[in-house]
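Re: export button greyed out
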Amino acid sequence: MESLDQLLIQASARIDEADDLEILASLESELVGKKSFIASTRRGLGRLPSEERPIVGAQVHEVQTRLQQLIDDRRAVLQREAEDRLLEQDRVDVTIEGYEPPVGMHHLLTQTVDEVVDIFTSLGYRVASGPEVELGWYNFDALNTPPTHPSRLESDTLYVEYGDSSDEMLLRTHTSPMQARYMEKHDPPVYVVVPGRTFRADALDATHSPVFFQIEGLAVDEDITFGDLKGTLAHFAREFFGSERKIRLLPHFFPFTEPSAEMHVSCFACDGSGCRVCSGSGWIELMGCGMVDPNVLEAVGYDPQRLSGFAFGMGAERIAMVRHGVNHIKHFYENDLRVLRQFS
Amino acid sequence: MKISLRWLEEYVDVPTSDPIEVEAVFASLGHEVEGYEVLEVPFSKVVVGRVIEIEKHADADRLRFCRVDLGEDELQEIVCGAWNFEVGDVVPVSVPGAVLAGGLEVGVRAIRGVTSHGMICSAAELGLGEDQAGIMVLDPSTPIGSDFADQVPLPDVVFDVSITPNRPDAMSVVGLAREFAAYYQTEVRMPEAEPATVDRPSAVGVTIEDVIGCPRYVGREVDGVRIGPSPLWMQQRLRASDVRPINNVVDITNYVLLELGQPLHGFDLDKVADEKIIVRRARAGETLTTLDGVERDLDVLDLMICDGESIVAFAGIMGGEQSEVTDATSRVLIEAAHFHPPSVMFSSKRHALRTEASARFERGVDPNLCALAAARAAHLMVELAGGEAFADVKDVYPSIIAPWQVDLEVEEIERILGIPFAAETVAELLVRLGMKVEGSSPLRVTVPTNRPDLTRSVDLIEEVARLYGYDRFPETLRTGPSGGLSNAQKRDRRIREIMVGLGLHEAQTMSFLGQSELDAMNLPDHDPRRAAIRVRKPLREEEAFLRSTLLPNLLKAVQYNVSHGMPDVGLFEVGKAFLAEPDSEDPRIPHQPTHLAFAMVGRSGPGGLHASLRPTDAYTATGVVRALLEALGLRAEIRQVASDGFHPGRSAEVYMGEQLIGVAGELHPAVGRAFGLEGRAPLPSSIWRVWWQTATGGNSRHPAHIRGWSSTWRSSSTSRPRRKVSFDRHRVLQGIGSKKSSCLMSSAEVLWVKARRAWHCV
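Workaround output, generated via the alternate export path:
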């Protein structure tokens, strides 16, 4: 059956030359369709002598299978090419801003507060908030601040008109009143951070605002030491400003802590060699802290002979300003979207 | 306070002159240095000379021609325009080649035909003061021909040290010298305070009528003083400490104040009626004209110094004009008294009159310093003003304030500080700080009267830590038993995250409101938000009240952005509002609920090339509310209600059960206009009381079992009478669900609304 072999050779060349799907379809019907040579040969098998029949039959089958395979392969190629052409036509410029769902932004202050709070919750601290309009007792007396202390004057503290005049009613000047409120309600040990708004009778300038955020920390337990205060604040500084940071404590004074200290962190911008961020000193003043004064523990009914503790308080605006180089506190309360959007 | 390093070194050896090292010592002792200034000699080639001859300049009436002895063979010929010196006076002379303060170079110059070899200088020309009217006439004993720079206590470094309020003892040069001596383990050299005295009785009489206000009064008489300028070194030190030199007697009282920390006052004794001093409280209606020329109405709590006739000084704060020391003064009464700190503090605040003296008295000056300071001032007046000090000192001190004892258990130090200390180490540290220490367990510590801050063992522990060095304690870490946010705090954060996810920006606005902002909200008189809590003494009109609603300040923030070129703004805030009703947990204080507010203006929605921005309207407001509730898993009902301050037909109230939790909708155009947002309506806004009470343990939800079937959608229609019921998705679901009970309805959406306010659902 030379003619079959011949057919295969000729047909495969034609299949390769078919360059669109329609030509390929008519070729398919010509080669393997009902009117094809293959089909008529198959139909003529019955007329062959019985000994030739299986040999020719097998040959026909093989040629037909191979032709069909060639056609299918070619079709797949042509289909892929056709799709590629279509995809090329569908091309769009995806670098153009298309259809963007709106995205808001957390305020830099809450971002800062949340970040600080999370550092302390991972150390096993609870989080408390407290009233912003507060009794003079909690803001001052319970914190070992005598009635004659200058911070109680109206030039420093904002008082409000509420209730009968027997209670001093004021806008808390720090988050520390929550120390007393929290200890009144909870038995030791106490590990708590208190973020919140605080108020002073200050006019707005680059570093002062009548409203500002503080984050207070308090730990009261048996055998809490000055070393624990240092270690805790060093941990905070490394988490917040980077693992290379060192801290130092310098003696200071607050009525509600003894000993008291001011906490400085080594400058993250220059690594302590001195730059504009740290005014050339290599250190940045971050917060006030100290060991809880025994009078504060006594005022809430804790036994200062058995318990000791430390407290610290930082200004959220201050640490955000230091970290991001914000140069005026007004940026926190103006809510200028062009400013807020920069702190994603 | 500002303190010169040279002055400090007069009382204590400081082994370094590097300002950075000195600053570090101050800091480690707890005295923060706010800055320092290096002072150099501001001139060169200025020589001390004596004026030998003065002639009038031949061609100029106002100039004089002088010959000056500079210690050389020939006299220097100099033309001078000043007239305040005579032949024989010793003066500073700049010779050719000299450079004066401000950079003026001195050369040989012809002045109206006469050659001048240099200049005779004024204090201003030498950078040593403001006086440019006349030549600086020096002490006649100054060596002729010597370099004038040797007479000036420069170079020097002036430190601006911030002293904490608990350390009145450190508000003086000697006080800081004590700190340095303790740090460097060396001794303090006390200044001389033993004046040569005359042994006549002084006629001065001192009476204290209020021993609480004034526990001690020392009056010391110095006669025969000659008023003149104080010596250059003293002027220089005063100026370095920002005190203006006036005359020798006044300068001495100020000098001793800075040196020892005891405020002094010098009276012209001839003007003290009857030479009597009486210390008493002011009487109603009395007035005093203080040295600054202000006549002050006095309060019955103000403590006064009086003479035989009237009030002469404001005790511990400022002297009066009438008895002040003038050029004519020859008899001086030095006052060195101890005043009760709160008394001085309240008077100083009441009259807004803060002085070097009041700053010290209100913190507490050592009551046992009075006599020493008076003696020191008398000593200087004898030495520098030619006075005669009386040995007869009037010292009224009815009950002596003695040093006190504090017991200190050594183990207690380790409990607080974290490392063990030996008793000997503690004793040594405390002795260096001027205390006496006896015994060992406990240590019995005697505290000197200049340290009113040390009354308890914990105060001594701080002193141990301070001198030992805070930086020498190890860093250890303690952790709490269990931490984390409360459920309410978690929900607070969640709300902020959802609002941000909905495309709004978080704002932080002030907690105050002004009357005009409150009025602008268009609220009826009975609205509780109108009864905002008043700030007693607000600094500004817009801080007169505490915010009873977050919305006004948020609208101001929106307006700020609109007026700065950003037309599409969406802001929200989570913060406390203040209501004039008692708090449920602590009824002594007002209720301070946490509110959420949001405000949007312009357009909202997805942006970009294929943006589908749409103008914000009431549907934007309620849409945000619905999305927030859905994300929180809360079920609430939005009812069509004309809410105060809102567009009457485009506002809604939000209910959980029968509890009103918020309002949403478009602002009333009048309110928009009042906030400068006219023409920008609709302005959807919402005030929102977050339903905190459900926060405990989170809402327990009962989710329907979702079976493994695929979802199908059906549309359906329903209707309601207009204005009667609110659309409630859940109610619609239940309605459809009951009709076709075989299917499990899980969600519904409004597809379109037909006329007559009917809605259709899928």
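The longest helix of chain B spans residues 370-385. The button fix ships in the next patch.
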